[in-house]
Amino acid sequence: MIEISDTTSSEIAAEFLRARRRAGSPAMGMVMTLVFVVDEDYADEAMDNARSASREHPARVLGVILGDGRGAARVDAQVGIGSGWTGETAMIRLSGAVTKHPESVVLPLLLPDSPVVVWWPAKAPADPAADPLGKLARRRITDAAAVPTGKAKAMLTQCHAYAPGNTDLAWTRITSWRALLAASLDQNRGKVTSASVSAERISPSADLLSAWLADRLKVPVTRHTSDGPGITRVVMSTRQGDIAIVRTDGKLATLSSPGDPDRPVALKRREIDELLSEELRRLDPDDVYAATVKRMARTGTRAAATKKTTKKTATKTAKKTVKATATKSARTRKA
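-> structure tokens emitted (335 positions)
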């Protein structure tokens, strides 16, 4: 990695070209630009995960670290190729006024005529599609489970802000669960009457899985709390009996269905680099995810509306009670 201090986008691009020539590969064999936006504390971990994902998807990886917004604008970078990378990499640190306009630094570094993916490994903007960097991307990847606090709120925020091209790694984590549940229904044609999901108390993936089951099956779904890790049990009730998937160790699950013996199924919890690689395989909008988050957003809105209505009704009832009591007391005094 070559360090460049107080630099510009054109100097970073020129260093990319010089690095390719030194490596003896002046031609570019990359298929996309992957941009991740992260704090300094998570930068190394995010870069390692991007490095692993780039083995399957050769890319120009641009790490953007937003520093202190005070003071003069400054851009520092570390640029390089090789050393386990199948593409090019740059870790770009922004400070000063330029932190408010990171797209001005990133835009000249995007590969021409190639898709752009922006990934927020930890805290993400409330509306990724409206974010200055998010506007440059075809796909925008967030991770509600990675925020330090308020994971459920972060997931609901992403649901309300959904735009075509958005996705969250909480959704990617349940790909295997969804595939196994769909396959189990193909083998058991009984009509599902209800379902339940058991997981840790705070689990964006479990919330999404519950919303997906409710949206696909049109049945009530109950959410239960367990000790984890992650999702531990999903049950779909039919007239013939329960179809259940139980995973208590985060690695191996047991599939139970009416009339069939229990079967062990590999259902390992995956690492971030594996989840990122899966998301980079498809760059078109995910219609199933869109339907799921819209349902989850509606459910949250209805719950809030119910609470508000209940409070309003209680206040109205209390006023009627006070008025009736005052009228009764007046009649008593008159008599």
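The longest helix spans residues 287-334.
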